[in-house]
């Protein structure tokens, strides 16, 4: 079936439908990761987004339940130069994901890099191009949108009941690979919804603030909870959790033109002048800062990629140390943090 992507600026990219029939609205973004397509689509941080893969061939190694980062798909649509299947394309169709192949992804990425991420609609159905463009323009942008409520767990649950170090994970859209890494180093992991209060978190040995979608600025309650736990127990923020820690400590966040999404993003660790190649997925960032607590910076644009507040026993990283998927340069961050928490609790 013929299909197309319509951007809010009127640009049309035509292709063929290989997923579910329908119309998918969202923010058109791109990821430069060469692998991890299933992880990408199931990552809650991609909620309300139409994901373009820059890799020229997607789906060539199939799918597996163990690669999923959540219980379902969160990307609204998938845009590819060449989709391989049928395992991958059947998987997308079964989950109701609009998926287009034959898209000129090089031109699309150049358009998004030049003009920024845009409101868009992916169409595999009867709606016409002009109607689709107008409908895309009527959709809300990502600025000011709080999305964590639609991806956070509704109730607390225990992910791993082994280990003596008890870590509370605040789920703003947490990836399973973060939980697996914590459990893998012997942590007792309890996951809480984004509405958890500081007093409940204070009963644990440490708190991990997870990744998640949307703009951090509207998350006033979540930010206040972060403020209230600072200094009471160790805190580690990842991705959105990093941004919330930044806001809670007086730093500013802003929307990036086209975001950082991929598995090849260079980050400078300032203290040792070491460069980490990292996995990233975010459309908002902490503004550049020369403050001492800003321990990591993006070598693309100077945005803050890491904090360390020793007096508050809090630190964070914008990138994904669990690397699901991605390079392993940042893997030791989680293990070192867990070891420090265990030593402090002993």
- Give start-end ranges of low-pLDDT stretches: none
What is the CATH fold-level name of the largest domain?
Rossmann fold
User: If helices are DSSP runs of H or I spanning 4 or more residues, what is the number of helices?
Assistant: 9
Overall form: globular
Distance between the termini: 62 Å
Q: What spatial order of strands do you see in the largest sheet?
A: 8-10-9-11-12-17-16-15-13-14
Mean pLDDT: 97
The CATH superfamily of the largest domain is Class I glutamine amidotransferase (GATase) domain
Rg over CA atoms, rounded to whole Å, is: 20 Å
Order of helices and strands: EEEHEEHEHEHEEHEHEHEHEEEEEH
Supply the CATH architecture of the largest domain.
Answer: 3-Layer(aba) Sandwich
Profile the largest sheet. 10 strands, mixed
Number of strands: 17
Beta-strand residue percentage: 25-35%
CATH class of the largest domain: Alpha Beta
Integer count of domains:
2
Helix content: 10-25%
Structural category is alpha/beta
Protein traits:
single chain, 346 residues, alpha/beta, Glucose Oxidase, domain 1, Rossmann fold, 2 domains, seven-stranded mixed β-barrel, 9 helices, 17 strands, globular
Molecular structure report:
- This protein has 346 residues and is α/β, with parallel strands linked by helices.
- The chain folds into two domains: 2-137, Glucose Oxidase, domain 1, CATH 3.50.30.20; 148-345, Rossmann fold (3-Layer(aba) Sandwich).
- It is built from nine helices and 17 strands.
- It has helices spanning 37-42, 87-94, 105-115, 129-137, 176-184, 198-201, 220-229, 240-248, 332-345; strands at residues 2-7, 12-17, 22-31, 49-53, 77-79, 98-101, 118-124, 157-160, 165-171, 187-193, 206-209, 235-238, 253-269, 274-286, 294-298, 304-309, 314-317.
- The strands form two sheets. The chain has a ten-stranded mixed sheet with strand order 8-10-9-11-12-17-16-15-13-14, sandwiched between helices. Strands 1-2-6-5-4-3-7 form a seven-stranded mixed beta barrel.
- Strand 15 (294-298) and strand 16 form a beta hairpin.
- The radius of gyration is 20 Å and the shape is globular.
- It starts with a strand and ends with a helix.
- The mean pLDDT is 97.
